[in-house]
Structures are given as structure tokens and as C-alpha cells.
Amino acid sequence: MHISSRWVIASVMLCHQVFSCKAPVQPTAADQEIASLQESIGRYPDSLTLRLQLSDLLEENGYPDKADSVIMTSMPADSSIAILWNRHASLLLGKGDTAGGIASLERSLRLASRQFDVMLEMGFIQAARGDKNALEIASQVQAAAPDARSRVAAEYLKGLYHANTGNEAAALEHFERCIISDYAYIDAHLEKGIILFGQDKPEDALQVFEKAMSIDNANADLYYWSGRCLASLGRVTEAVEQYRKALGLDERLKAAKTELERLGY
Question: What angle do CA 249, 264, 226 make, to 5 degrees?
């Protein structure tokens, strides 16, 4: 395997720091890929594609601040390129900076207004905050988006806003419209079922989750919520099976672990 000189130098410096070193520290595959992209950017400094690839790779490997630094370094020369503001927004939102993320998305939309995916992302943030602007964004997308998928997502967005503001009847109506338009829109099934479960209708909710699982049998949340329904109906053995399936699909699903512990498993 070829190791570039920069890694050899780094290894020698490390040896001097600890006074003993048996072998050069081997760079990981990710380190090598990052270094390769950095070298390519050095050769082609005007390549937006390379800079975005480097930002993505840095974030994937646990360096969100460095990923954002790559984007911000590009801003002086390319501040009018909407995709950079979108990427900056994504990184800010990932770090919990909602206000900064919204500001960046707004900047992007001022540069290119007909970005329906960006409009929807903004709408989902607003819906989570109970901001009525989410409904206006959804209506704008439904009126102007040329693709059916965006229009269906806008219907789902309206449902989310009403669910987050306590209007369950309106939320169910919009989720149902979403499902009618696109039966495979799993998130709409999921939200509909959660509302029904919260209304103490576990049998109705279970039917919703089971229909959704017939479309997508690899969604951990669907198994978790079907488990909640089954447990509520006293079908504990089946509930445990669903919780275990959920964890098999996503071991980070703490809620499923909690429910298993509560049931004594």
C-alpha cells in the first residue's frame, strides 16, 4: 500500500513525542480519502464538486466543524451559489443551531426561490416549532412544484404542523390525503398511527402500522409502535417480538429497549 510522505513525517513526529515507536502509524481508509480530496482541491481549487465531497466526507467521519469550515472557506468566492448555503444550513442544523440553519436556508431561497426541497426542509423546521409559516410554505409548494412527490410531501407537512399544534382531526385528514396520493409514503402512515394510539385506539393504530409494514418491512419505528399497540392490547409475547425486531433493525432505538425492560425482558 502506498503511503504518502505526509503520513511518514507525521509518524516520525509522533515517535519523537513519545520517545519510542515500533512502526509508522497507518492512516485509515477515511484519512487517505480525505487527504486525496484535499490534494485534488489543491490542484483544482475552483471545483465546487470536490469541496462539497470533502465536506460530506468530513461530516460522515465525525468532523462536522471541519466540514463546515470547508463550506465557509468557499463562501467569499461563491457566496451567490445556493447549494453552499444549503450545505451550511444542513451542518448548522446537525449541530443544533436551528436559528442559524433557518437563516442559511432563507439566504439560499433568496438566491434561488424555486428550490422546492429546500422550501420543504424549511417548512418541516417551522412545523416542528409550531410556526404557522409551515402552512404557507406547504401551500406554495403545492401550487408551484412540478413533481407529485413534492406536492405530497407538502400535504404531509400540513399534517405535521397540525399534529404539533394539537389539531389531531386536521392532522389525520392531511395524513390520509397524503396516503391516498402516495400509499408508499411511510411517514404519513407512521404519524397517523401514532395519533390513533394516542387517542386510545390501539387496534386501529395497529392496522395502520401493519399496512405500512407490508410496504416497508425494514422500518424500525413501525415495529416499535406496533409493539406498543400489542402491549396495550395485552398481547405481550407478540409485543416483545416486535420490539426485538425493531432493535434488530436499529440497535440505537432506546425506546424499544425501555419497553422490553418494562415488560421484564
Answer: 40
The C-alpha atoms of residue 9 and residue 140 are separated, in whole angstroms, by 56
- DSSP string for 72-98: HHHHHHHTT-HHHHHHHHHHHHHTT-H
Q: Tell me the C-alpha distance between 87 and 92, whole Å.
A: 9
Q: Taking a C-beta distance cutoff of 8 angstroms, is the pair 184, 217 a contact?
A: no
Cα–Cα distance measured from residue 252 to residue 93, given in angstroms and rounded to the nearest whole number: 21
* pTM strictly above 0.85: no
Single-letter code of the amino acid located at 197: F
Question: How far is Cα 223 from Cα 246, in angstroms, rounded to an integer?
Answer: 5
Q: What is the residue type of 150?
A: S
* CATH of the structural domain 47-113, one choice from 1.25.40.10, 2.115.10.20, 2.40.50.200, 2.60.120.10: 1.25.40.10
Per the prediction, the chain carries an average pLDDT of 91
Q: 198-265: which CATH topology?
A: 1.25.40
Which amino acid makes up residue 175? F
C-alpha angle 58-41-69 in degrees, rounded to nearest 5: 40
pLDDT tens-digit profile of 73-123? 988 878 899 999 999 999 999 999 999 999 999 999 999 999 999 999 999
Condensed to tens digits (0 to 9), the pLDDT of residues 32-63 reads 999 999 999 999 998 999 999 999 999 999 99
